Task: structure prediction
Amino acid sequence: MGLKDILIPQETKFFDLLEELSSQVRIASLELGSVFDNSNSKLTTIEDLEHEGDRIVHNIYTLLDKSFITPIDREDISKLTILYDNVLDTIWDVANRMNLMGPMAKLDYMDSFSVIIEKSVSEIDDALKLIRTMDRQAIEKHVINVHTYENQADHLHDSTLSEIFQMNDIKELLKHKEI
Result:
């Protein structure tokens, strides 16, 4: 513990909470692949992860309100929290939509998106753990990988829309378009 830490104590629990939120997102991203296999049993698991994520988000904001000094900029903590909560909410939304729409034909894009989501979330999870030590070079590598996956997802999205709109079954087309 350095002199700075003694004179200006900082609340490091933010890192623990952000890592806990990241863990919830990582698990949910893995469960999403099972939902794509028409396994509604994973819906409850994802819903539970989303509720736990909401609890963690609440704890982060409560801690922000109580903390005078934060280990990183409070706006950055808030942005990370909001963005990662949105990822978890979106995973839940996709799983819930699939459940509401009932069985649908499984297309290749589902597995491809699932893999891209899992890899992206894994990279973000690894980068988030490095914020504690502020290893900028290592964080940057993960950020670059996330951008690569984002580009892959954009390309997959475009090709998938083209494939979906070639379907003859309107009901299936609408289901897949919603996903």
Summary: The chain has a mean pLDDT of 86. The chain has one domain: 8-178. The first helix runs from residue 3 to 7.
